[in-house]
Amino acid sequence: MTDDGTTAAAAGTLGYEQARDELIEVVRRLEAGGTTLEESLALWERGEELAKVCRHWLEGARARLDAALAGPADAEETATAAGNG
Length: 85
What we know:
Layout: H1 6-12, H2 16-32, H3 37-83
Helix pairs in contact: 1-3, 2-3
């Protein structure tokens, strides 16, 4: 883990499962203690980055689900309106 911005770039290329698994490991390490203040801060920052990656993936999945659910309903309404005319 470096502070030079490479972690942010790397976090953006992670898949959801990879980011989630790494975030779980970060949390375990923080909860276990035994790290220096600097290490703890670096872990916290990495955890924040990973949480953002997970949030991004989940928001994208929600948007796709909403679009998929809205699509058939819109088509049904259009067909019903056309059939009643």
